Amino acid sequence: MPQYFVAIHRSDDYQPAVAEDEAMAIAIDVLNNEMVAAGVRIFVGGLHPARKALSLRAQPDGGVLVTEGPYLNTKEHVGGFWVLDVASLDDALTWANKAVIACRASVEVRPFH
């Protein structure tokens, strides 16, 4: 079956301690349990804010430059994600719709090669 990356997008100023209440945590747990029961969840992970990232860039001299912060300057970052193994894009979108509601966030769905 095809695998899909389902990413949760957060604003760069997102504060989990402020924005995430018990109802949201329960909704996400319910969604994760539903994915496991359906046998579609391969992996799930939450990420720290993009400001905690380290970016590596190839240099003309063959070296690698490591800098603090995200690779791209944006107003949003990926806050967490699932890797799902489902039969079709429509199935991935069904799970992504549930993720939008549980996480109260925008969601991006992308297929793996």
Automatic annotation (TrEMBL):
<dbReference type="InterPro" id="IPR011008">
    <property type="entry name" value="Dimeric_a/b-barrel"/>
</dbReference>
<protein>
    <recommendedName>
        <fullName>YCII-related domain-containing protein</fullName>
    </recommendedName>
</protein>
<feature type="domain" description="YCII-related">
    <location>
        <begin position="19"/>
        <end position="109"/>
    </location>
</feature>
<dbReference type="Pfam" id="PF03795">
    <property type="entry name" value="YCII"/>
</dbReference>
<comment type="similarity">
    <text>Belongs to the YciI family.</text>
</comment>
<dbReference type="InterPro" id="IPR005545">
    <property type="entry name" value="YCII"/>
</dbReference>
